[in-house]
Design a protein that fits this description.
alpha/beta, TIM Barrel, nine-stranded mixed beta sheet, eight-stranded parallel beta sheet, 16 helices, 19 strands, 35% helix, binds dihydropyrimidine-2,4(1H,3H)-dione, binds zinc ion
C-alpha cells in the first residue's frame, strides 16, 4: 500500500520545509512539492500539521521480569501505546540473571518481542562475567546486530555490575566496536541507605527517594565515565535525573570525551513531592529508580537538554499495576521499581518543550528521535525523513488539545504519571514502515508486524580509538641489565 502525506510541513533535526511525502513498500520514496497521488495510493491530509520522524524511545522494559513480578505492558500492548503517541520504535533491554547464559536470555527476549506491533531492538545487559559472557558479547555484535551493552550499577545482590564487571565488559566493548550504557547509582550505598532508613521506621514510599539521593547517582555516573575514559570506550548514561550526573557528563564532554546522556520525560516534568502523598497507591505508582527529584534538578535537566549535553529523551517505560506495587505496602524496598510513559513522551515534550520555547521544533525532533538513531547507529534508516528511510512517520497536529488520563490511554497499566495534564499538540496519524497504524484516535495494528532492527558496530570510530589507545600505551623502558663489567668491555670493543 502506498501512502501520500500531503500538504504538511516536514520537520527534521536539521530544517523545516513544506513538502509532500510519498511512502511505498515501507520506505520513503519521494519528498517534494505537489507530488501527484499515485494510482491506488491512500492520502493523509497533513494541512496545517508537521510531518516528523516517528519517535524512538531508546529505553523501555516491556514485560520485564523484575522484583518478583512482571511489567504489565508486554511487547504488543507497549509498542501499540507508543504508536498511539507517535513513537515508532523502541530499544528495549535483554537482562540476563546473574549466571544465566547471555545468548539464552537474548533468545528469550527475542521470542517475547515477536508480538511487537512496532519496530524494536535490544541493548543487552552485562550482569556477570566470565569467558562465556565475553564470547557471547562477540556473537551478539558480529551476528545479531547488537551494538550496545547495559550495566546496572544498582540493584545489589541481583543484576548489579561491580567495577570489575564494568572494566571487563567495557574492555570487550571497545574491542567489538560497541557502546556501553550505564544505569548510574552506587548500589552499595543504596543498599546501606535503604537499610538505615527502614531501621529508622520509614517504611512507606517516602523512604524510596531518601535511600537514593542525587549524590549516589552523581558518584556512579562519574565513576562509569572515568572508567570509560581510561579504556577509551564511548559511554551513554541512561535516565539522568539530577544535577550531579549532568555535571559529570558535561565535565567529560568539555574535556573531549565521547559521553552521551539521556533524560526521561518523567524526570523533566514530575517532582519528588509525589512520594510524600499520603495515598500509598499514588506514591508507590511513582516509585522508580532513580527517583523523581526536586524542581531545581528538573530545571538543570532542561538546561542539559537545551545545551546539548543531554542528547536523548526516553521513558524507561516499565509499568506495574497497583496490586503489583502493593508488594511493598509495608516496606518501600519491595515496591517494584518502574513507571510508564511511552504513549505520552512525544506530547508532553512538545507541550513543555516546544510550546514553551525551550526547544525549537528541530531540536525536538533531534531529542525525540534523530539523536538516538545516530548514537545507536541506525541513522538515517530511522530518525529521518529522507528518501530510502523507513517510513516511520508521525503527523503532528499542533492544535490538538487533550487531557492525559489512565482512563483513556492505551498503556496496560492502571495509572498514568501525567494524569490530568492538559497538552496542546499530539499525533494525528502515525505510520509504521509505511502503514497507517494510528489515525482518528484509533489504533489499527497487527500483532507481530514489528521487526527487529539490527544495529551495526561503530567500526571506523573504534579503529581510530584503538590506534589512539595504542599510541597512549606506555612503552617499556629498555634497560641494560648486563653486569657493568661486560658492558664496559663491549664499549671498548666498539671503540676499536
Ligand atoms: N529502574 C526502574 O525504575 N525500573 C526498571 C529498571 C530501572 O532501572
Ligand atoms: Zn535504570
Ligand atoms: Zn531502565
Amino acid at each position: 500500500m502506498n501512502i501520500l502525506i500531503k500538504g504538511g510541513t516536514v520537520v527534521t533535526a536539521e530544517r523545516s520545509w513544506r513538502a509532500d511525502v510519498l511512502c511505498a513498500d515501507g520506505k520513503i520514496q519521494e519528498i517534494g512539492s505537489d507530488i501527484e497521488l499515485p494510482k491506488g495510493a491512500d492520502i493523509v491530509d497533513a494541512g496545517g500539521q508537521y510531518v516528523m520522524p516517528g519517535g524512538i524511545d531508546p529505553h523501555t522494559h516491556m514485560q520485564l521480569p523484575f522484583m518478583g513480578t512482571v511489567a504489565s505492558d508486554d511487547f504488543e500492548t507497549g509498542t501499540a501505546a507508543g504508536l498511539a503517541g507517535g513513537t515508532t520504535m523502541i530499544i528495549d533491554f535483554v537482562i540476563p540473571n546473574p549466571q544465566q547464559n547471555v545468548m539464552e536470555a537474548y533468545n528469550q527476549w527475542r521470542e517475547w518481542a515477536e508480538k511487537s506491533v512496532a519496530d524494536y531492538s535490544f541493548h543487552v545487559a552485562i550482569t556477570w562475567w566470565d569467558e562465556t559472557v565475553s564470547a557471547d558479547m562477540e556473537t551478539l555484535v558480529k551476528e545479531h546486530g547488537v551494538n550496545s551493552f547495559k550495566h546496572f550499577m544498582a540493584y545489589k545482590g541481583a543484576i548489579m555490575a561491580d567495577d570489575e564487571i564494568l572494566v571487563n565488559s567495557f574492555s570487550k566493548a571497545i574491542e567489538l566496536g560497541a557502546i556501553v550504557t550505564c544505569h548510574a547509582e552506587n548500589g552499595d550505598l543504596v543498599y546501606a541507605l535503604q537499610q538505615k532508613i527502614y531501621d529508622m521506621g520509614i517504611t512507606g514510599p517516602e523512604g524510596h527517594p531518601l535511600s537514593r539521593p542525587p549524590e549516589v547517582e552523581g558518584e556512579a555516573a562519574n565513576r562509569a565515565i572515568r572508567i570509560a575514559e581510561v579504556l577509551g570506550v564511548p559511554i551513554y548514561i541512561v535516565h539522568n535525573s539530577c544535577r550531579q550526573s549532568l555535571e559529570a557528563i558535561t565535565r567529560a564532554r568539555n574535556e573531549g570525551q565521547r559521553v552521551y546522556g539521556e533524560v526521561l520525560a518523567g524526570h523533566l516534568l514530575i517532582d519528588d513531592s509525589v512520594y510524600r502523598n499520603k495515598d500509598f497507591d499514588f506514591a508507590a505508582a511513582h516509585v522508580m529508580s532513580p527517583p523523581f527529584r526536586s524542581p531545581d534538578h528538573q530545571k538543570e535537566l532542561w538546561h542539559g537538554l537545551q545545551s546539548g549535553n543531554l542528547q536523548t529523551t526516553a521513558t524507561d517505560h516499565c509499568c506495574f499495576c497497583a496490586p503489583q506495587k502493593a508488594a511493598g505496602k509495608d516496606d518501600f524496598r519491595l515496591i517494584p521499581n518502574g513507571t510508564g510513559g511511552i504513549e505520552n513522551r512525544m506530547e508532553v515534550l512538545w507541550h513543555h518543550g516546544v510550546s514553551t520555547g525551550r526547544l525549537t521544533m528541530n531540536e525536538y525532533v533531534a531529542v525525540t528521535s534523530t539523536n538516538a538513531a545516530k548514537i545507536f547507529n541506525i541513522f538515517p534508516r530511522k530518525g529521518s525523513i529522507s528518501v530510502g528511510a523507513d517510513a516511520d512517520i508521525v503527523v503532528w497536529d499542533p492544535e490538538a488539545i487533550k487531557t492525559i488520563s489512565a482512563k483513556t490511554h492505551h498503556q496496560n497499566v492502571d495509572y498514568n504519571i501525567f494524569e490530568g495534564m492538559e497538552v496542546k499538540g499530539s499525533a494525528s496519524n502515525t505510520l509504521s514502515r509505511g502503514k497507517i497504524v494510528f489515525a482518528d484516535g484509533k489504533l489499527n495494528v497487527e500483532r507481530g508486524a514489528g521487526r527487529y532492527v539490527d544495529r551495526p558496530p561503530f567500526a571506523t570510530y573504534y579503529d581510530a580509538m584503538k590506534k589512539r589507545a595504542a599510541v597512549k600505551q606506555p612503552t617499556a623502558v629498555k634497560r641494560d641489565t648486563r653486569p657493568k663489567r661486560v658492558a664496559m668491555k663491549k664499549k671498548s670493543v666498539i671503540k676499536r
